[in-house]
Amino acid sequence: MSGLLLAVNIVLLAAGQLFWKKAIWVAGGISLRSLPGLFMSPLFLMGAICYGAATLSWIAVLSRMPLSLAYPLQSLTYAIVMLAAWQLFGEAVPLSRWIGAGIILVGAFVVGLK
User: What Pfam families does the database record attribute to this sequence (predicted)?
Assistant: First the structure.
């Protein structure tokens, strides 16, 4: 159950980042004048909801799993967001970032070993 909660947390964190990126992208960037509209946009609000739910799931994870295990595994979010940004937003991802994401994945695997 704790692994499932952690997976939910990771997905919610990634989704929150992607919703916020899309909201900023749709708005054409941010400025002081655009902030109120940005904060009220459905995409931005979905990102905030994802982050709120991620916080609740994280509290549940911490009640069931050692922090020294859960927090490093949460770094999987970095690789997921990078892959999604490449696919969804067409962001250029240089080889160095792919290598870094691979290192993160290997590190998460090692941390997860018993």
Answer: EamA (PF00892)
Question: How much is the CA Rg of the chain, to the nearest whole Å?
Answer: 16
Query: pLDDT tens-digit profile of 3-57?
Result: 999 999 999 999 999 999 999 998 888 877 878 888 889 999 999 999 999 999 9
Dihedral of alpha carbons 51, 57, 60, 61, sign: negative
pLDDT tens-digit readout, 23-34: 999 888 887 787
d(CA 31, CA 114): 48
What is the C-alpha to C-alpha distance for residues 6 and 19, in angstroms, rounded to an integer? 20
User: Which residues, 6+ apart, have CB-to-CB distance to 7 below 8 Å?
Assistant: none
